[in-house]
Amino acid sequence: MSLDVNALRAQFPVLHQEVNGKPLVYLDNAATTQKPQVVIDAVSEYYRTVNSNVHRAAHYLSDHATAGFEAARADLAAFINAAREEVILTKGTTEGINLVAQCLGRERLQAGDEILITALEHHANIVPWQQVCERTGATLQVTPLREDGSVDTDAFHQLLSERTRIVALSQVSNSLGSVTPVAELVKAAREAGAWTLVDGAQAVGHYPVDVQQIGCDFYAFSGHKMFGPTGVGVLFGRRELLDAMPPYQTGGEMIETVSFEKSTWNQLPYKFEPGTPNIAGVIGLGAATRWLQQQDRTALATHEDALLASASEQARAFDGLKIIGDAATKVGVLSFLLDGAHPADVGTLLDQQGVAVRTGHHCCMPLMDRLGIPGTTRASFSIYNTLEEVDQLFQALHKVRSFL
Ligand SMILES: Cc1ncc(COP(=O)(O)O)c(CNc2co[nH]c2=O)c1O
């Protein structure tokens, strides 16, 4: 059944406004997605009706807050096909990756070991591993890209060796939109004896994720990329690994017993959830997860493919525009350069026309260096964008070019 985009858009209040005197055309979804009313209501409802601290409840409000919090965890576990004790609630992708880097990488690696990433990675999936290498003597190996901006999987297989202890790769590139065949690469990594982490930040909002099908040991993502609140996310970890890993953030909630001589840890998932969590954010993410699961995700993906197809076709026909990253398998990200214009100027001139995009290195400085560019202008689409908005992007770009 085809998607009723207007009915979908009606659920996202932020879209229905003017900016700089023009109707908002929000095309910065790779940075963060907008929130449906049900998510906004869930957060507001928590504060309005049951706001209290969770776990070890001793009263009605805390009981109900805990129930909502743990129901969200159960929904997230089902969303990625994991057990609830394998779902660690975090601030987001960055925190999830740091947890694995600190509690597994820093604990287990030594000189001579290697960590294998790809040239597409976001800083969140580069710098934590650099830190591990600096402290353990391990070395970072980087899988190069093909001309079209996709990961060179042949090179990946060649870089894999008995020295590879951790493989960390993004499922979707935030800067180019390239989709990496993570299940294939994870299988090869596991056969080589490496632990595997997948950065799913740019995947979860676009299509269903099944961590069993991918086969990875860890999977990190952020709520704000899948129509949920900011400051909340998930790290999936295989139970046997999480059980064997020490925590790196300690304090309340994550303990079983504390004495001045020694402390013992709480059971999973709480061992890795110190302090008071982002309760409202988690409840909001639970609402986003349930909402997304109620949508026809095939229809959503088909619509997004149509948006990208239209944007790519118009970009190829636009004189002086160079697409950066044209992989055969992409999600709705269009990174480009406009002859004679710095990306920042293009972004500013588009904003003056109500079109919101992102410009710069997109937290992928090494990638931009390898591409020999300072950055790009990036339009990124989501389920509530329309084909008319794609047209408006290029109408606005024609105006930008007339100013140059
Ligand atoms: C692939 C990828 N990994 C990790 C992160 C970090 O996620 P966070 O912990 O929720 O911040 C991002 C955020 N990407 C972007 C954030 O703003 N523009 C972006 O492209 C990302 O796209």
Automatic annotation (TrEMBL):
CDD domains: SufS_like. It catalyses: (sulfur carrier)-H + L-cysteine = (sulfur carrier)-SH + L-alanine. Pfam families: Aminotran_5. SUPFAM superfamilies: PLP-dependent transferases (SSF53383). Its cofactor is pyridoxal 5'-phosphate. Belongs to the class-V pyridoxal-phosphate-dependent aminotransferase family. Csd subfamily. This is Cysteine desulfurase.
